[in-house]
Write a structure and sequence with these properties.
By secondary structure, the chain is α+β, with helices and mostly antiparallel strands. The protein has a single domain, classed as Cytochrome p450. The strands form four sheets. It has a five-stranded mixed sheet with strand order 1-2-10-7-3. The longest helix has 32 residues. It is globular.
């Protein structure tokens, strides 16, 4: 089994254990990757931007101009501009609308008598939230979902499999997104509104504002990064709880445990399994020398079950404390949307447990997502019984 197989995309953790015991840093000669497996080393890769560059696209002659792939000082200035509208107050203000969207989606599933958690709930909910946050029509969420999938699929080019197809699909989607997002940016410049996109258009640091191209790229990044983690967090939470009925019973008995349970899902079934870096110079990690300009995969999913960092690391424990997982990254690139993802996850799990007295997988061997660096199901049909009306 290898990291890019279907089996590993469904459950990479047995392979992670084998690799972590064999070596702290795995070199894959074919695509020439260096995979960092242990918690302390992964944390260093994510934190030490003097040794590890985020601009991995430059290794392949590309420049996606996304914040995710930028280093200081440019990253510092752009993040300062983009962070301004992402205040805790602004995120908290979204809660009533997220609850409304959540219940509308569940109402529709109950009316149909069937629920595919991925297609009917976990995918549309964060996309609708992002659409409303930016000021896009909520009805466009399916188009946004298609573009998000295309962006995430770019990660598959690392394995060397389907690289040309993924790149071609992104080029086509990029043209569509540039037209769609660019039009909305121009509308906000001409007629300012109160949504996030309008605030980003107006935000500035030291007299500098984002230009149209930078705004389009941020919309693309927010579309993918702002939905992938949340979609897979919701799906993985349900899978983990159905696999651990004792933990599910504890959560049903005490809903105040939901925030801590979500943190354990983020650790135990990390939604985004890897982040990418490039070495600026030769670097030694855990006794392994990585050459300059090496393509580095920080295996966050593996690090989050490192027994050197977590007691009884393979156990799913919703009461785990402390829980220093790396699911949202670390350092200057820590996920800007983490508070929003946690809020959506809390609302989703609260509503699912309140609405359904029982949930059951229709097929235990669910199909995994196609991208190797995200963990979650491509579909997850569930049988359900309704809770009694309160």
């Amino acid at each position: 089994m290898n990291l890019f197989s279907i089996e590993a995309r469904r459950d990479p953790y047995p392979l992670y254990r084998q690799l972590r015991e064999r070596t702290p840093v795995l070199h894959v000669p074919g695509p020439n990757l260096w995979i960092v497996l242990r918690h302390a080393a992964v944390k260093r890769v994510l934190t030490d931007h003097e040794a590890f560059s985020s601009n991995v696209s430059a290794l392949h002659g590309h420049d996606f101009a996304w914040l995710l792939f930028m280093d200081p000082p440019r990253h510092t200035k752009l993040r300062a501009i983009i962070s301004k509208p992402f205040t805790s107050r602004a995120i908290a203000a979204l809660e009533p609308r997220i609850r409304e969207l959540s219940r509308q989606l569940l109402d529709a599933a109950v009316a149909r008598g069937q629920l595919d958690l991925v297609a009917d709930y976990a995918t549309p909910l964060p996309l609708m939230v992002i659409a409303e946050l930016l000021g896009f029509p909520v009805a466009d969420w399916r188009e946004l979902a298609r573009w998000s999938e295309t962006i995430v699929a770019l990660g598959n080019t690392i394995s060397g499999t389907g690289a040309a197809e993924a790149a071609a699909a992104f080029r086509a989607a990029d043209a569509e997104m540039t037209d769609y997002f660019g039009r909305l940016v121009r509308e906000r410049r001409a007629r300012p509104t109160s949504d996030l996109l309008a605030r980003l258009v107006a935000a500035e640091v030291d007299g500098e504002r984002l230009d149209d191209g930078e705004l389009v790229r941020f919309c693309q990044l927010l579309l993918a990064a702002g939905t992938e983690t949340t979609t897979n967090l919701i799906d993985n939470a349900v899978i983990a709880l159905l696999e651990h009925s004792d933990q599910l019973a504890q959560l049903r008995a005490d809903a105040s445990r939901i925030p801590a349970a979500l943190e354990e899902v983020l650790r135990h079934r990390t939604p985004v399994q890897a982040m990418f870096r490039a070495t600026r110079r030769e670097v030694t990690l855990d006794g392994v020398a990585l050459p300059e300009r090496a393509f580095v995969i920080a295996a966050i999913g593996c690090a989050n079950r490192d027994p050197d960092a977590f007691g009884d690391a393979e156990r799913f424990d919703i009461a785990r404390e402390p829980n220093a997982h790396l699911a949202f990254g670390h350092g200057i690139h820590f996920c800007l949307g983490a508070p929003l993802s946690r809020l959506e996850g809390r609302i989703a799990l609260t509503d699912l447990l309140a609405r359904f007295a029982s949930l059951e997988l229709v097929e235990p061997a669910w199909p995994p997502r196609s991208s190797f660096h995200v963990l979650g199901p491509a579909s997850l049909p569930l049988r359900f019984t309704l809770a009694r009306a309160r």
